[in-house]
Amino acid sequence: MHSRTDGWIEKVYVKAEGDKVTRGNKLVEFYSPEIVAAEKDLLIAKQSGKLFSQKGSVSLVDSAKQKLRLLNVPETVIKHVQASGKSQDRVPILAPQSGVITKMGIRDGMFVTPQLQMYTIANLSSVWVLVDVFEHQLNWVSVGNKAEMSVQGLPGETWTGKVDYIYPELNPVNRTLKVRLKFNTPRQRLKPNMFADITLYSTPKTVLSVPSEAIIYYENNPRIVKVVGEYKYQPIEVKTGMKSEGQVEILEGLQDGDKVVVSGQFMLDSESNLQASFRRLQE
């Protein structure tokens, strides 16, 4: 929250970080010469209410009231000034939303400018959670997907939310993509900067897959040892896709029903013979 003009804080009603406020609560009383001048313009315009502004379509009264609204003067003050015929030196600044005061930068008698941050109000009825998704998991994540969360500080409790936004750029260092989740917290027990464990749910998809331990990365290219007959094996180059829970999707190289070696691939023959087979496969 910022003031719309220079002025002095005459009285502070909400005095501490962590205080809860409701929309419309009086936070401070504020004196500003510019606001007082605008109130007097309203009174002058009221006395000559038949006059119009240069545009010819807005009365001077309406123009003066609009100026006060732009200075963040509450509607109740504008009506009181207009009804009483007197300007009001001390104007209340009201909370624009319900929430918790997380930052406070003022005190009684302080001179403030529009650049000064007077209050920060956080509405904790819903929170954003930022997670890092690995590059090979990107195809699983879509806006609207269900998410479940638990936090170490509140063991035994879970929250259900959804994917709210997927950021457009990967982190070049750890090759992850930041994803924003939204969770409703009616009891407001979750606090900013907590660490959370997240489970993301995707739309079910049937794929051809093999156990991750069946993949051999030879010269950075994934291979699989395929069973082609009794005691006969053949290294096959494959194209992999998504990875989840110890399974790797196979996009090219295998068909449903093929048998593959899951462990001990390098003991089928000497390691050199297996590497020779890989080289022949490349040729």
How would you describe the overall organization of this protein?
This protein has 283 residues and is of the alpha+beta class. It folds into three domains: 7-122, OB fold (Dihydrolipoamide Acetyltransferase, E2P), CATH 2.40.50; 126-200, Elongation Factor Tu (Ef-tu), domain 3 (Beta Barrel), CATH 2.40.30; 209-282, conserved putative lor/sdh protein from methanococcus maripaludis s2 fold (Beta Barrel), CATH 2.40.420. It is 17% helix and 38% strand. It is built from four helices and 19 strands. The chain has helices spanning 33-47, 60-70, 75-84, 271-282, and strands at residues 7-12, 20-21, 26-31, 90-94, 99-104, 111-112, 119-122, 126-134, 146-151, 159-170, 176-184, 196-200, 209-211, 216-218, 221-229, 232-237, 239-244, 247-252, 259-260. A five-stranded antiparallel β-sheet has the order 8-11-10-9-12, with no helix packed on it. Strands 4-3-1-6 form a four-stranded antiparallel β-sheet. Strands 14, 15, 16 and 19 form a four-stranded antiparallel β-sheet that branches. The longest helix has 15 residues, at 33-47. It is rod-shaped and about 105 Å long.
